[in-house]
Design a protein that fits this description.
two-stranded antiparallel sheet, two-stranded antiparallel ribbon, Fumarase C, Chain B, domain 1, single chain, 4 strands, mainly alpha
């Protein structure tokens, strides 16, 4: 985005100067100015989850006859770009903001709506043919979108990052347990020597503890699959 150049957008609170090429709008820009707290922005995993939610909501609303095919297709295409990380530079907000995450939900709605405008050959900020609230956020609320995005991003990170890492660690410890089987060492308990054990037994115990950790992570994923979507405020 070019620095210094702006456009004027209007919403229910009045006019707001927004960076000219930004896909977000007036509400997001207000949040940028109101919450310069930490400098920490939302993770790739969380923004991806927001895109998945908007992608799924558009298809569900179309299936229910609430959203016409043209608008639904545009939202799905724009949301896929959010999912793929192509629009991350348009999510500038600090992670510390309003309690329900309204600013970030609005950020996603504005980005997707303005990307839809581009795809349809309309100017950014025109809210044509897709409106950020009426169409992108249809049937949703920040109070269910943000908790659901937390669930989705956490579940995906557990599945794609933590579980593979734990399995790699468990496998390495199991190999060490086999390799150390012949080594006998003094056991220790209550600050004194105890029954001798094999070093391989110790490492086998470490491997089993990691296996238990994997099982707990897998159970957590199942719990995280339940989403708050539909319980709008």
């Amino acid at each position: 985005m070019k620095s210094g150049e702006t456009r004027i957008e209007k919403d229910s609170m009045g006019e707001m100067a927004v960076p000219k090429d930004a896909l977000y709008g007036a509400s997001t820009q207000r949040a940028v100015l109101n919450f310069p707290v930490s400098g920490y922005r939302f993770s790739r995993a969380f923004i991806r989850a927001l895109g998945l939610i908007k992608w799924g909501a558009a298809q569900a609303n179309h299936d229910l006859g609430l959203l016409d095919a043209h608008r639904a297709a545009l939202i799905v295409q724009a949301a896929e770009e959010v999912i793929e990380g192509k629009l991350d530079q348009h999510f500038p907000l600090d992670i510390f903001q309003t309690g329900s995450g309204t600013s970030t939900n609005t950020n996603a709605n504005e980005v997707i709506a303005n990307r839809c405008a581009q795809l349809a050959g309309k100017p950014i900020g025109s809210r044509e043919p897709v409106h950020p609230n009426d169409h992108v956020n249809m049937g949703q609320s920040s109070n269910d979108v943000i908790p659901s995005a937390i669930h989705v991003s956490a579940a995906e990170q557990l599945r794609d990052c933590l579980l593979p890492a734990l399995e790699k660690l468990r496998s390495a410890l199991s190999e060490k347990a086999k390799g150390f089987h012949h080594i006998i060492k003094i056991g220790r308990t209550h600050l004194m020597d105890a029954t001798p054990v094999r070093l391989g037994q110790e490492f086998g115990g470490y491997a089993q503890q990691v296996e238990y950790g994997k099982e707990r992570a897998e159970k957590a994923i199942e719990v995280l699959r339940e989403l708050a979507l539909g319980g709008t405020a």
